[in-house]
Olfactory receptor 1044 (Heterocephalus glaber), 193 residues
Amino acid sequence: MPLFSAFLSIYIVIVISNLGLILVIRTDTRLSTPMYSFLRNLAFVDFCYNSVIKPKMLSNFLYQRNVVSFHACAAQLGCFLNFMVSECLLLVSMAHDRYMAICDPLVYMVRMSPGLCTQLVAIPYGYSSWMALFHTTLTFHLCYCCSNIINHFYCDDMPLLRFTCSDTHSKELCLLICAGITFLSSVLIVFVS
């Protein structure tokens, strides 16, 4: 029960702080700037990111029953990957936004138009959704024949690959290439801007 109480407290703080931040930014018209738009989206992604894993983890602690169905595992993995990549790419968009605000403050509001801000938010969401769907589909189209017990508190890609009878080389290579492209493009965008 102490683990349940600790993680429940952490989860409640995360939910209240992120939803509170979203509400304040949404209701206060003085915060209708690109920076706060990005911050609102980052708070939303952080809320979703934590809500994918924590509720199931809390139920496992409470009921001492660590069971998740195959389809629920696929959904959890897909959502986890989606929000993880979204968070990374939104931070890149925020870095570009701050660079523009610091280096060109006089033309900042002209260059960071609502259309560009929408694109800088939509691209991370779109790319991360595609990436999550791609990797989840690749992972769950493999043939699983070994034990179905994973010693983790959520469904993750790499532990699942240990239980497959299929050749995982191409899946691991795809994962490495996509993660590398995402990482290198993020770093490159931050350094170029």
